[in-house]
Design a protein that fits this description.
Order of helices and strands: HHEHHEEHEEEEEHEEEHHHE
Radius of gyration: 22 Å
Shape: globular
Strand content: 15-25%
Helix content: 25-40%
Largest sheet: 8 strands, mixed
């Protein structure tokens, strides 16, 4: 312990020789050793660029799934503390400014799941889940999968992207919780910023793509038969819509950080109001969504805990509906992350 005066930091030359020897004796560990080295070297660096924007959305979707499943942020911290990039993913590094740019794309899709520790990766369990008869096209484009366990509960996370990165517009998260037979779908959107009166306003300006996605949500809900009577305690919801947008500031993210972005969740019904005639407008009369003009939003904690406890989300979901929703969203221009939580109870019972 160097703090007590015994021992000290291993000299750089000896450390390098030690790593070289370990790599020679255990070549199967080379990739993981280099992953950890990169993690230490780049911890705290800000990831920027076109691909970083998509990774940030994937990161938020994955983090939300972990928090919903665990009921706390402990699992997210555990997983994200070990997340890093691989060297071949990095285009440029600015050591002085502590920023880095990523390569534009990779053949495997370069999902956020690629950067988590191999200890969490699963080759089989997520794909053998019998809840859904997976759409064939979806399965052909799966580029990441991982499984987590808490007590008798299990979370399978599957990532698929049918488009090249430069053609992918964003990320959708579909979360299914078997103990309440509910699912929630989240569409992620990046917010821009303007300097107004010596202050910075963070906002999202809806476009034609947003209108298409909101209309798709409305269409699915209009064809979804919501039970009028409860058959169990688990059927009760404060809101059984299940469709949300999350708006995230486009500020990039830092390697080694486990914090969620300070975004806002907007329910589909509320989004319809914001886009309607009575909704808020910017100074020029245009449609804008911001934290200030959308006060009935949910925070990260409010959103994840409400799903964990079964207070929001659709009820009485069946596999046919899940398959149809997954198929409809997968044929769009976004990447898709599906999180399936199975097992009885919630975090209190784990």
């Amino acid at each position: 312990s160097s703090s007590s005066g015994l021992g000290g930091v291993v000299p750089e030359v000896i450390w390098r020789d030690l790593l070289t020897t370990i790599k020679a004796l255990r070549p199967e560990l080379i990739s993981e050793i280099e992953r950890v080295e990169t993690q230490v070297k780049l911890s705290g660096f800000l990831v920027k660029g076109r691909r970083a924007k998509l990774l940030m959305q994937e990161r938020e979707a994955f983090a939300s799934a972990l928090d919903i499943f665990s009921g706390t942020n402990d699992l997210r911290k555990e997983v994200f503390d070990s997340w890093t990039l691989y060297r071949e993913e990095i285009a440029t590094i600015d050591n002085e400014g502590e920023t880095l740019e990523l390569n534009s794309g990779r053949e495997d899709g370069g999902s956020f799941l690629n950067g988590i520790s191999p200890n969490y990766l699963s080759e089989e369990s997520a794909l053998q889940h019998d809840l859904i008869n997976w759409p064939e096209e979806f399965m052909q484009h799966v580029t990441g999968k991982t499984t987590f366990g808490r007590g008798d509960r299990q979370l399978d996370v599957i990532y698929a992207n049918r488009n090249a990165l430069e053609k992918t517009l964003g990320v959708d998260l579909i979360y299914y919780k078997a103990s309440f037979d509910l699912f929630v779908l989240v569409q992620y959107k990046m917010m821009g910023s303007d300097s107004i009166d010596n202050s910075t306003e963070i906002y999202y300006r809806p476009d034609k793509q947003f209108d298409i996605e909101l209309a798709r949500m409305n269409n699915i809900i209009s064809h979804f038969s919501i039970p009028k009577e409860l058959n169990s305690h688990e059927d009760y919801r404060l809101n059984n819509d299940g469709f949300f947008f999350k708006f995230i500031p486009n500020t990039g993210f830092r390697v080694g950080s486990h914090e969620l972005m300070p975004g806002i969740y907007i329910a589909r019904e509320y989004a319809n109001f914001l886009m309607g005639e009575s909704g808020p407008r910017g100074k020029g009369g245009g449609k804008r969504i911001s934290k200030a003009n959308s006060p009935r939003h949910l925070s990260n904690t409010e959103f994840t805990m409400a799903i964990n406890r079964g207070w929001i989300g659709t009820n009485s979901v069946n596999s046919d509906l899940m398959k149809s929703v997954i198929t409809e969203y997968f044929i769009g221009e976004n990447a898709l992350m599906v999180a399936l939580e199975t097992g009885k109870g919630n975090v209190d019972d784990a």
